[in-house]
Design goal:
The chain is mainly α. The chain is built from 31 helices and 2 strands. It has a two-stranded parallel sheet.
């Protein structure tokens, strides 16, 4: 009967109903009568937990549609003409993106009822706005026992604050930060307390004293559940760093980011963005910002050398070359800082450093070869520039810092050959080899009187090329003698404890004696004679200590132990160098700060009268000197000159 058939249809599923063949007209009538009840009883199917179940349902439905072709061919043809998508149904159509995080989908699902956060609500604009008073609850909560919900709310508020710095009003945020006082309070709260709050929430143990290895947050059982919120927060920190301009604020955020390094190490994508921002601040920021950026870079590369060291070194070298294009007293300290820190980064792994050094020293050699062979202005300028010079300085510093190293030692010879080639091509602008330094003493005529007098000294550290006018000035020769003195002293200081120092210093002693015989300028002779005496004194000291040695020259171990003992006790040259270095650094600081030596001369200031004042004086005394004229003035000048000669 009809009621029983209706009950049977009611029990059928949608798929079974589609396969019923639509044979009974009574069933259609029954369907119309019970449509209201069916609509009321239909429920939303529960979401499948795994993709395997979804694939099973899809395959089953596809089989039902294929069976429909044999049972009801007319209806199947109708579907072919009007709904091809239903027949071409595929298993993949029911699957969601496998790469999408399920927790992230949960957060992006539209809730049935919008919640208003406990921070603050704006009923007029339907936007949530944080306030100073509402930040008290999160602050108290983070100090006691931070929960995942509390961290999520703080992260969303922080995201909204960062969006205001970027000017990205279209970005969807749960909160809106419109007041600058609220913004400052929120950022300050995150910088101070967020790191400790995250550690508490994840229940991470504090590292023990002396423990160098970092405790990664991913080791916490709560990490997976809270990973999305943490990822959003540390990404916001990187975005905040890129939008800030005030150096003090950038430094404060970098200190916080340095604390968050373990979290960046657990998230590779965010870590790469963080490293890019750090390299930018390391190469272009203010002094404190540069130091903090380097500390974070060093920390990351020490803990993940195999992943990050190679790309970081490459990017740091490129940033160094870009930012040493122009050299001045203001930029020189920053360039020297980049050289020292980059040398320290290269010392982390000599194998990786060798690959980089080999490639870049070879690149310098290729530029030099092209300049020598082609002899064009473009190729010449590719070598004769500050970037090329600072690259040579960098690799000299790297190889000397890591020395002794069996891995990097083969690169010393090619680097020296490049430097010698530059000296022969350009001149003595990049001289830092002792042999070529001493050659300048013989090539320059120091007895020739300067063509011009100049009180202002020449800072050779920031001058790439001297004009012909500069070469004729007295300041040029004064500065040249100072530079020769500094370079020779620094070189012999590095070898002062060597057992072969007397033999090493002999050629320089001969050249210095020859210079003193030829030079007639007292100031120059005084400086070089003092240098010669210090070198000879150190030779006598090493010779005396060497005569008491009971081992042979071939005993390498005994020689190394002897040199180490001499270095600990000190030599006359090393003691003199330490005193000289302190005085020299003070002089350099004065030059960098822009203070000139003229300030010490206390020269009187000559004030000249203006033309109007001169005319007024002439009018005032016109009656007394009626016969004065320009010719008379000239005659008077001649008269005074003749009287002066007579008096002499």
């Amino acid at each position: 009967d009809v009621p029983s058939m209706c009950r049977k249809l009611e029990d059928l599923s949608v798929d079974e109903f589609m396969l019923s063949g639509f044979d009974s007209g009574e069933e259609d009538d029954c369907e119309d009568e019970e449509s209201t009840q069916q609509k009321g009883k239909m429920k939303k199917p529960a979401p499948q937990k795994t993709s395997v179940k979804k694939q099973g349902k899809a395959s089953e439905h596809k089989d039902h549609l294929s069976a429909l072709k044999s049972k009801d061919p007319e209806f199947y043809e109708f579907l072919q003409e009007n709904d091809q998508k239903l027949l071409n149904f595929d298993d993949s159509d029911s699957l969601e993106d496998e790469d999408e995080d399920e927790e992230e989908r949960m957060y992006h699902r539209l809730p049935s009822q919008l919640e208003v956060s406990h921070l603050e609500a704006d009923d007029d604009n339907d936007e949530v706005e944080t306030g100073k008073k509402d930040l008290k609850k999160p602050k108290e909560g983070t100090k006691k026992e931070p929960t995942a919900k509390l961290i999520r709310d703080i992260t969303q508020a922080f995201k909204a604050a960062v969006a205001t710095t970027k000017g990205d009003s279209e970005e969807l945020c749960r909160y809106t930060i419109s007041d600058s006082a609220v913004f400052n309070s929120l950022i300050l709260f995150c910088i101070k307390d967020m790191h400790a709050a995250l550690n508490k929430m994840l229940k991470l143990k504090d590292p023990e004293k002396g423990q160098k290895k970092l405790i990664l947050p991913s080791s916490s059982p709560r990490w997976q559940k809270n990973q999305i919120d943490i990822k959003m927060y540390i990404a916001g920190v990187v975005q905040l760093l890129s939008s800030l301009t005030q150096s003090t604020v950038v430094a404060a955020v970098l200190r916080h980011a340095n604390q968050m390094v373990p979290y960046y190490l657990c998230l590779p994508k965010q870590c790469r963005h963080f490293l890019k921002s750090l390299i930018k601040h390391w190469s272009t920021g203010e002094e404190t910002v540069r130091v903090l950026a380097f500390l974070a870079l060093n920390k990351i590369c020490r803990n993940k050398q195999d992943i990050y060291l190679n790309p970081v070194l490459r990017q740091m070298y490129i940033a160094y070359v870009k930012n040493c294009k122009f050299t001045s007293p203001n930029t020189l300290p920053m360039i020297n800082f980049m050289q020292r820190t980059l040398a320290e980064m290269y010392s982390l792994d000599t194998q990786v450093s060798y690959q980089h050094a080999f490639i870049y020293i070879r690149q310098l050699a290729i530029h030099l070869r092209n300049a020598m062979n082609l002899k064009k202005k473009e190729t010449y300028q590719s070598v004769y520039n500050w970037q090329y010079m600072h690259c040579l300085y960098l690799w000299c510093r790297v190889l000397s810092t890591i020395y002794p190293s069996e891995v990097l030692e083969p690169l010393i010879y090619p680097l020296c050959q490049v430097i010698i080639g530059c000296i022969n091509l350009i001149g003595f602008i990049c001289v830092f080899l002792c042999t070529y330094v001493c050659d300048i003493l013989q090539q320059e005529d120091f007895n020739k009187k300067p063509g011009r007098m100049s009180i202002k000294p020449i800072n050779f550290a920031v001058i790439l090329k001297l004009s012909k006018t500069n070469l004729q000035e007295k300041a040029y020769k004064d500065g040249l003698v100072e530079q020769l003195y500094d370079l020779i002293l620094e070189y012999f200081h590095t070898q002062a404890c060597s057992i072969g120092f007397p033999e090493l210093a002999l050629p320089t002693i001969v050249q210095l004696k020859a210079f003193l015989k030829e030079c007639k300028v007292a100031n120059y002779c005084k400086q070089m004679r003092q240098l010669l005496e210090k070198i000879q004194e150190n030779c006598s000291y090493i010779t005396g200590r060497r005569q008491k040695a009971a081992f042979g020259v071939g005993d390498v171990t005994a020689v190394a132990a002897w040199e180490k003992q001499v270095a600990e006790e000190g030599t006359p040259l090393t003691k003199y160098y330490s005193q000289w270095k302190k005085l020299r650094e003070k002089e350099i600081q004065l030059e960098i700060s822009g203070k000139e030596r003229m300030e010490d001369l206390n020269l009187p200031e000559i004030k000249r009268k203006k033309a109007e004042e001169k005319k007024a004086d002439k009018k005032e005394f016109k009656g007394l000197f009626e016969s004065d004229s320009d010719d008379d003035d000239d005659d008077d000048d001649d008269l005074f000159k003749s009287k002066g000669k007579a008096l002499c």
